[in-house]
Design brief:
This protein is mainly alpha-helical. It has 14 helices and no strands. It has one domain. Helix content is about 75%, strand content about 0%.
Length: about 290
Amino acid sequence: MMNTSSFILITLPTLIWSSTWFVIKFQVGVVDPMVSVFYRYALAGFLMLSFCLVTRRKLRYSIKLHALFLLEGLCLFGLNYWLVYIAELHLTSGLIAVIFSLIVFFNIIFGKLLLKTRIRIPVLLAGLLGMSGIGLIFKREIGAFSFSDQSFMAIILCFVSLLLASLGNIMAVKISKHDVKVIEANTFGMLYGALSMFLLTLITGKAFEFEMSLSYISSLFYLVVFGSIVAFACYIKTVIRIGPDRAAYALIMIPIISMLISSIFESYTWDNSSLLGICLIVLGNILMLRTK
């Protein structure tokens, strides 16, 4: 069963990322999504590198490990978030959260293919219960979805982003097998992710604009410190400790907490389908937490 420290480690990113879907909305509009992602991970990477230098952590690694850092950065801290930011321009954050809750299944599949982990039936059943609950909660949003050109492309981008995020989880586990600590791995991953966005911005000729508004600056600060540094440190450590399949299941709780936030700030109303969905997700969590 999941111990107390693992439970705390996964609870922190769950609570933080539940709010970041809403906060990201303040990062898109004036500033190009690619540039906003660059700002986010360049700042996060710089802060973490400064911490590593001050605390004299190991920063010299082989070319092979830097290749893994690069892959993790591209998948988890670069291309993944760029596609999410673009999708946020055309889809509701709730619908994107529904799509990303599928990561539990991607992690199970990639874990089997790339890490040779076994598929645990209770974890699979818990994931199915959780997804069913998510579907019931967001029944209205899913029903209101229109397959317009922009919305359809945004859905495609979400699934590509989901694929990259899951591969990033697997890369994190592979890196940990080389006895690299989470802080150091995330530092290089974020720096490589930021570098990829910087180069893409130059190649595509986009302007490095910056929005001097309280909403943009404060949301960027929140995403850098809490959404990136704190949340990913806790989540990646949990992925390494309990496996990418069980760690990803906790992310199914994110849309639920997001809707509670929406109830307070956006007057979201709950119905019978929503309440039944909550029950299914709770049952899935019980099954997941009891899985050895």
